[in-house]
Design brief:
Blueprint lengths: L1 H22 L19 E7 L4 H10 L11 E6 L10 H10 L20 H7 L3 E9 L3 H4 L11 H6 L8 E5 L1 H5 L8 H7 L2 E5 L4 H4 L8 E5 L15 H13 L6 E7 L2 H6 L3 H25 L2 E6 L3 E2 L2 E3 L10 E3 L4 E2 L3 E6 L8 E4 L1 H11 L3
Parallel strand pairs: 1-7, 1-8, 2-14, 3-4, 3-7, 4-6, 5-6
Antiparallel strand pairs: 2-13, 8-13, 9-12, 10-11
The structure holds magnesium ion and zinc ion (ZN).
Length: 375
Amino acid sequence: MKSYLLILSVLLFCFACKTQKNNHLQTPIESRKDFSPTKNPKNIILLIGDGMGMGQISAGTYRNNDKSNLERFEVTGIHKPRCYDKLITDSAAGATAFACGEKTYYHAVGVDKDTLPLQSILEEAELKNLATGLVATSTIVHATPASFIAHNKYRKNYEEIAADFLKTDIEYFVGGGNKYFERRDTDDRNLIEELKAKDYHMGNYLTDFVDFKKSIPTKGKVGFLTADDSPLPILSGRDYFIDASMTGINFLKKQSDDGFFIMIESSQIDWGGHSNDAEYIISEFLEFNKLIGKILDWAEKDGETLVVLTADHETGGFTIQSESTIDSLVTVFTSGNHTGDFIPVFANGPKSELFTGLYENTEIYHKMRKAFGWK
Ligand code: MG
Ligand code: ZN
């Protein structure tokens, strides 16, 4: 039996070599479907579930009748989340690894270990004439989205981070944190007025997103601040995330013939982990899961979009206990902070094969650049 399997795998390997020669495949993956693997994607959608480890994914999936849209991804990988100066990363160093490709220190936003600014993939996309976007369920100046557009030695310098939104012509951003733009403690600037002067179409939480989106121009730049400070948890009534993400993707698609890059973060899975609240985690995951389904539908139809989903780290040491049944999960937390677990990566679409394997978190950046075909 063993030798039969060996022969079969040798045969499969030879078949794979042949396919590779004929189609110039880098990594042949049999389950991949109907896109041309030799083509680079025009667009990349990077999805981050902050604090979303395997426990969070498993519990959310069990709660959802043992199904999730993560099962639709054709390629999976694993990344190693540690940062430059600590084994256990924070979200700033974690997002900087994805955004800029370097391991940096705890609390660093878009800067290297010596606090020097690093160009992010979003900034490089802007320079290459792609349209860019950020959507989050935290404030838009929070560590994860901030690391794609700002450069700061300390993640909590929120007003400085907000001012960095004036330095890149990002086409679309939606998240909380209106006060860091409009009512600042450190200076008298009104960044909302400054953004409007740069031709941004701006809105905030005083308008429902469903009404605001009717006013979005076909072409241009759009910012919407969904709360004065942090947006609510979904269980307390936050309702913009799916709509703002899909509106953003459709908007960005129309902005440039060269494609787009967008990072969309389900930020509060992490906050559920910090508060050791299983229902908080699961409810945030279930909303994210719905959005992931819509995005995969969109990307499959589009055919030119690579979708990458991962987390920066796990939060809470969240696990499912032996007394659990599918209808009644018994969960436990081993931490009120982040943990050092390796983190799953999911990819779909053109060049998704690059994301298979076990690698450092910084490779997410390098693989996305490679997928775009950037030198
Ligand atoms: Mg975050
Ligand atoms: Zn956290």
